[in-house]
Protein 1
Amino acid sequence: MSEVMRMSKLYAPTLKEDPADAEIASHKLMLRAGMIRKTASGVYTFLPLGYKVLSKVENIVREEMDKIGAQEIMMPALQPAELWHESGRWDDYGPELMRLVDRHDHGFCLGPTHEELITSLIRNELRSYKELPCTLYQIQVKFRDEIRPRLGLFRSREFIMKDAYSFHATQESLQETYDDMSRAYGTICDRCGLDYRPVEADGGQIGGKVTTEFMALAPAGEAELVHCTCGYAANTEAGECLARPTEYEATELKKIHTPGVRTIEELAEFLGIPESSTVKALSGKDAEGKLVVMFVPGDHELNEIKAERAVPGFELLTDEEMESFGLHKGSMGPVGLPEGARIVAARSLKGISHWVVGANEDDYHYVGAEEGRDFTVDEWADLCVVKPGDCCPDCGLPLSGSRGIEVSQVFQLGTRYSETMGATFHDEDGVEHPFIMGCYGVGVSRTVAAIVEQHNDENGIQWPFNVAPAHVCIIPLTVGDDEVQPAAEKLASEIADFGFDVVIDDRKERAGVKFADADLIGWPLQVVIGKRGLAEGNVEVKLRRTGQKKDVSLSTIAELLRFAKRNARKHPSGLGTFAGIFE
Amino acid sequence: MSEVMRMSKLYAPTLKEDPADAEIASHKLMLRAGMIRKTASGVYTFLPLGYKVLSKVENIVREEMDKIGAQEIMMPALQPAELWHESGRWDDYGPELMRLVDRHDHGFCLGPTHEELITSLIRNELRSYKELPCTLYQIQVKFRDEIRPRLGLFRSREFIMKDAYSFHATQESLQETYDDMSRAYGTICDRCGLDYRPVEADGGQIGGKVTTEFMALAPAGEAELVHCTCGYAANTEAGECLARPTEYEATELKKIHTPGVRTIEELAEFLGIPESSTVKALSGKDAEGKLVVMFVPGDHELNEIKAERAVPGFELLTDEEMESFGLHKGSMGPVGLPEGARIVAARSLKGISHWVVGANEDDYHYVGAEEGRDFTVDEWADLCVVKPGDCCPDCGLPLSGSRGIEVSQVFQLGTRYSETMGATFHDEDGVEHPFIMGCYGVGVSRTVAAIVEQHNDENGIQWPFNVAPAHVCIIPLTVGDDEVQPAAEKLASEIADFGFDVVIDDRKERAGVKFADADLIGWPLQVVIGKRGLAEGNVEVKLRRTGQKKDVSLSTIAELLRFAKRNARKHPSGLGTFAGIFE
């Protein structure tokens, strides 16, 4: 039997007004519904209802981890500085790492992630290829000193994560676990009712090369991503850019007087052509200080990570450096560049045979500049930030754009930590090798907020069945009434007996207050019991998600719910569970 | 169906030798059984088996909290310094409080306890007497910078606690919750298989007045306690001392030359009497600097907390101060003290009509000093550290002594925090009052270690059923064998289907290694499947706790276990579950 909660005993201080400092739906609604409270900037307490949701999400994560053979452990939050010195991250990680010293002046940090700790944990104890692969995980509090904590649970300084680490003898074995994890992460999102995309991403500070982010789509998300109906999706920072440049008619190289034109916008306007028909130049220097000029479609931005990948050490020039190289800011082009300048161009520009581009002379531009005839590109590369409308790299169709919340991420770490920290195993022949490692994170508290972002309306939250703090809220309209109150109590325990989590709003409050709170908190189904309906043997059920209402016989309601649950359309989050009642 | 674990996949690095720096059984055995590993001094990682036990204990705690209507929440580990300044504990708590500053130079501490945080959480939101009582709890990581972390999980710097806080309008309501909590704590100990005593204790830094500690009896415990067959128990620091002084025959006041005698030991030896027939004097001063001399039975120690309670501000004199008061160290007594000296005597001394005591003159003592005739006691008080053999304050029988591990504690806080931090509610008449508060802690990781202290032998751990990482370990003697291996697998899933947690030792290891590991890890029941037995349709079962072995038919073993479980003697920890098989 599931529990029956009582609103009269529940600590869930709901708020009528939106809190002043909450910008996004999840933050506002979780505060208003009495699920979380702010303790300090970026530091939150989970109140009983919020904690129930958090636990349900944790359990979903736990079940999916256990299914793929990952083993749960618990590492400490306090991590000795020495381990981070070993990996080199003590200095690299920056001010987001919260640091402290103990009473004996030993340095510690509060773990934002646990690569160092787990590597030190298994080294010297996990020794043989026979024990591999091995995947360990924990669900635990993490710390990151965000410079400007905001967006409620999305950018907080103390948060709950599931982090897993895997150890392998071969790349194939890593790939297998990586694929298992990726599938598990998809299932976790599905079970939590999230509309998500697995996207190509960048490794960032963790240091992985192959990595996928799981993005819950939501306007409040901080990440920009592109995706395609074919299934392709990528973070705009990381995805391949296949821009669609447009051709301008001129095919002859012709220098045009463009007085006062300095920017792409001005150039396009001056010529009356789209920005995508122009070519933008960006001057920089390589690691040795030599001049490199990069060319990208006029309507696209250079991606610095890609630029660095194409030209290691690449740095944009300052105005002074440009002058010293003899460059003309605002009219750079591939024709007539200083001797020795290396030209790197975005691959998409191959699609334009004749460029509209600067003439390396103030107030002049070229049209019809042809690669091979008028200038030579030294190297073609993927250089731009991808954007909606670009070609899908998988199928060529135009990409859509969305904002996304990164709820989880999988990384192939390789030997980044095992090598620096000397964690090795013996292969069949007794030869020592560093472990090949993977790491895998789920933002558990962040997932809770992402669910709210996707499941709410103007009245409050609409929890998917699987993660709802309770499934059914029973609202007796007259508490203490001789008939209504006992009927409500009896129904509550009947429904609970069928395995539902039930809450009964037994507070001595007006009906309007109870309805408003039920909508705000977001119980999937409300069952209203009033004197009049009861006289006819009826109760009213309301589906929170659609607002649909229906009168149902009190004697059959519990059985009906059980039936509905058993025959629900099999949405993995239980979304459709109660829909059948209204059909 | 419960899970079937596989030793071949399990990360449980067992050790053959005792680790060098582990002093006590729980620390040694949990390291050796591959359940915990040290990350830093006083900072531990729970490996998969240790984590399973920890989770089972957590769930027992959670169930008992939910049963008495406490609501689970999760507060942050990071606590703003301001809150601790409000309560006054930022300065009082000392170096055990781990402190840090964030990147904006705001002070934080890592919570060792959460009175400040919860008080600030509910103030301004819990407002009406109608919402009271309200009890909130969390199971969470805590931090305390022990000066010398030791004894494994007993004195660690990062540990898991359940802490609960209750808010009340009246003392009666607090008492009710306090009693509920005390009963729940007893049940938790019972369900974890702990032999424990609820003992009178001292509030310490939390600041409670009425408080009880739950002590698991174990020689490794740091606390000393006394207890009686009548049920009475107390921490020796806190319990009432009813010493049994013995009378010496002299009834006439007589000054005796005692050359060189300075200590009680020397005095007793000189006179050939027990120390309990002598009276010890301790000189000090009160808050105003006036001389106070305390008298206690010669075989007992002064308890400083009690001394302070009898004489606020009481401080023992230094040798210099004694001289300036004209006192003679080593021969102080009530007869002939300096003018104005206040005499405070242990109540137990009322039982001695004539004292053997110092004569306020070097090398001289009195025998036969009679209160009322030769001197006057200004005040009788409870002054001593109680010790085994003293009279039980409840029934008078001699107390037994034990060492104990404090696994949990309940406190009546009163208005200590609500008053300093301004947390108030409105009563029926709209009048504001500070909340009356209680707080209640269970050392969850400490409980795990306490269980091991009480349940082990020279071969390893003997987990009680309820908290065992798995209930049954199936040991196929020949892994990969055509008959043995499938029979083991089949049995494992049969037993698991009956709701047992099962592990199968499918490693390609010698039988001896498997037996040793099974004993070390401490699964309650081992089922050994070998080729020879199997030919006769038999397996061997071994009860870890007693070492009893028995051959049982393979076809009936699973059913037998189910039967045994159903008919087990109802020890709340499930201790007797498998015993029936061997009867």
Protein 2
Amino acid sequence: MTGPVDLAAVLSRIDRPWQPRTVAVLNDYDVRVVRTHGEFTRHSHPETDEVFLVLSGSLTIRMDDGDVALGPGQLYVVPRGTPHQPFSPDGAEVLLVEPSATVNTGDSPGELTAERRLA
Amino acid sequence: MTGPVDLAAVLSRIDRPWQPRTVAVLNDYDVRVVRTHGEFTRHSHPETDEVFLVLSGSLTIRMDDGDVALGPGQLYVVPRGTPHQPFSPDGAEVLLVEPSATVNTGDSPGELTAERRLA
């Protein structure tokens, strides 16, 4: 991961939704890309904020005080400890920024829990 | 900065190149957008890596061991302490991820040094 990374090339190699790939490591943080489709696990990250940036498609982040609808080029920060449920009926490509230790399903592990995987 | 942020809307309000705007705060990190045009100050950040993601246009990062050429959707991490000079003769829109304390010109302050500014 020392050269430039083409996000579209990495995304094209991902065959399943909700399985992030780490495309950059910045100190102890990761930049990840993920393909979303359908409904993800409702969860929170007690120890960190989480950045979502939609690259293509559309993503809704369901939160207790309302839905956040994101399209291409739109970004949102889910505050630490805040329950959220990504929902993407039509699919999206999303960039995430979070500490490298962050697990995708946070405090609600299950079948969608993914191991950290470098692109 | 609690709602969704539209990167294009923020970028459209930036009237000068090399003046980043912080569009998201993630723990003690910033996500910033910047319009690049021309040649920036050669500098390094002794305390941190720095992520560059080109959103549109083209950006070259001149480094001692060669140039890194980035187009839309391409990302590069400049390692901490590594001299680099962004160069963008045709202009670009770029997303940066770095600690909130990071100053754009790093160890080489000058007329292009920008104060941290929230979008």
